[in-house]
């Protein structure tokens, strides 16, 4: 084999090299993907949600637990969990929040403030808001709850007129409608499916919110809802209050 390889013309060696490199990269991707799926049990459920409409009713979570400080922001199938390595966009990073997939048309399923606080929508935020709260589980700490994908695929916002871009520190009560589930994924044209991405974000020293896309800047939402939404616990689906 080695002799034969040596006899290959220069362009032949080039092709062998390129194919070899390609295979190495491909194996890397497949390996990473397989690894991700062993760390997560979310993918079969997400497939089922999108491929079997009849299964949807039994996958939906409607409420958080009664004694929990937060209400659930929106009803739906809690598909991708906190710290989840699975999913089309999280192979190289953990998921910073939970994805709640609603059963309905874009722009019709309400999203509510999980807890009272002060809402901000930065001037370039088409589909997102963030709310500042006094942490109900750790006295003296400021936390933020972040809600996104609340616009149509082409960027028609589903956030009420009450919160235009540039909104800062507007008080909202627990349960106030702050938007509707959508499919907006920025200029990225890959479809993401109708859902709300929700996360709990830590503060910087100056009280501003940390970078939400990094899971290490976020908190496990489980104790705030009384629901098991941490992928490390591999919860059964649907996720429901057990108490
Ligand atoms: Zn998400």
What's the structural blueprint in terms of helices and strands?
Blueprint: H1 2-7, H2 10-38, H3 43-51, H4 56-59, E1 77-80, E2 98-101, E3 110-112, E4 117-121, E5 129-134, E6 142-148, E7 167-172, E8 177-180, E9 196-202, E10 218-219, H5 222-225
Zinc ion binds next to loops.
Summary tags:
single chain; 243 residues; alpha+beta; Glucose Permease (Domain IIA); 2 domains; 5 helices; 21% helix; binds zinc ion
Describe the overall structure.
With 243 residues, this protein is α+β, with helices and mostly antiparallel strands. The protein has two domains: 2-32, no CATH class; 41-233, Distorted Sandwich (Glucose Permease (Domain IIA)), CATH 2.70.70. 21% of the residues lie in helices and 20% in strands. It is built from five helices and ten strands; from the N terminus they run ααααββββββββββα. The strands form two sheets. Strands 1, 2, 4, 5, 6, 7, 9 and 10 form an eight-stranded antiparallel β-sheet that branches. Strands 3-8 form a two-stranded antiparallel ribbon. Zinc ion (ZN) binds at residues 80, 95, 97, 99, 197.
